[in-house]
Amino acid sequence: MRLNDEAGVYPPTRTRPAKRADLVTEDVKRLITQRNLKPGDRLPNERDLQELFSVSKSTTREALKSLEVQGLITVSPGPSGGATIREVPLERTLQLIQNYLFFKDVSMKNIYNARRLLEPELAAGAVPFITEQQLAALENNIENCQPASQENGDLLNQRQADLDFHDILAAANPDPFLSFICQTINELLRRLVVFSTDTPAEEHVKFGCANVRCHSAILEAIRQRDADKVRELMREHMEEASGYVTRLNGRLDGRLILDSEMAARPLKLEPR
C-alpha cells in the first residue's frame, strides 16, 4: 500500500494520471520529509521499499533512479549498498536555473543590477564571521589576479578567478540563501559570459587592475572589521565592474549548460 493518512502523509490532488514509478518517487520524498532524513541517512532497502509501496522491483529501481538524477540520493550497488540521502548539489541547481534563464531575455545589465544590491550586503555580513584562513585566501586570490601578461586567454582566466574573491565572502557569510544566490550568479558569470574578440587586451588589463585595487581596499576594510566601509567599497566595486563589462562588450552566451561541465567544476559553499 502507498503512504496514506495513517502515516501522517496526505497525497495532494493530482490533475493527471502519473506513472507508477513517479508515484513511488513522490512517496519516497514524503518518506524523507516525514522521517526528517538528513544527508548521510539511508533509505529502507530495495526490498522494504517494494513491500512498503506494493510495487515491483523494476518500478522501485526506476523511482530510485529518478531521485538519483534529481540529486536527492546516491545509490550504491552490491549486497551492502543501497540508497543514501545526499544534499542536492549546487551545480545541479545551477544547471536547472540556467535551463530556465535560457528561455528568458536576461542581460548583463540585469545581472549587475542584482549584484549591486546583493554583493554589498553579502560582503558586509561576512565581516564578523570571516576567519584567518579566509582572510589569507582573499589575499592569495588578489595576488593571483594581478595582470601578469596581455594574453587574452590569461586575462579571461583572471577575470573568472576574480569571482573567487566573492565566493570566499559567500562562504564566510552565515546567511545560506544570500550565499547561494550570490555564488550562483558568480558561477553563471564564469561559465556563460563572453567578450568581444576584437576588444583590445589593454582594456582587460585595466579591468583586472581595477578589480585588484577594489579587492585590496575591501580586504583592508575587512581586516579592520569595518562592515560599513566594506559595504560602501563593494557597492563602488560593482558600479565600476558593471562599467568595464559594458565597455568590453560582455554578454551572456545563450546556451544550456552541459552535464560534462558540471563534472568539470564542482561547486561548494564550504569555507575554502
From TrEMBL:
Keyword check for Transcription: yes
Record domain HTH gntR-type: where: 18-88
Spans annotated as Disordered: 1-20
Pfam families, A to Z: FCD (PF07729), GntR (PF00392)
InterPro entries (alphabetical): GntR_C, TF_FadR/GntR_C, Tscrpt_reg_HTH_GntR, WH-like_DNA-bd_sf, WH_DNA-bd_sf
PROSITE patterns: HTH_GNTR
UniProt keywords, alphabetically: DNA-binding, Transcription, Transcription regulation
The protein's name in its UniProt record: HTH-type transcriptional repressor NanR
Lineage: Bacteria, Pseudomonadati, Pseudomonadota, Betaproteobacteria, Burkholderiales
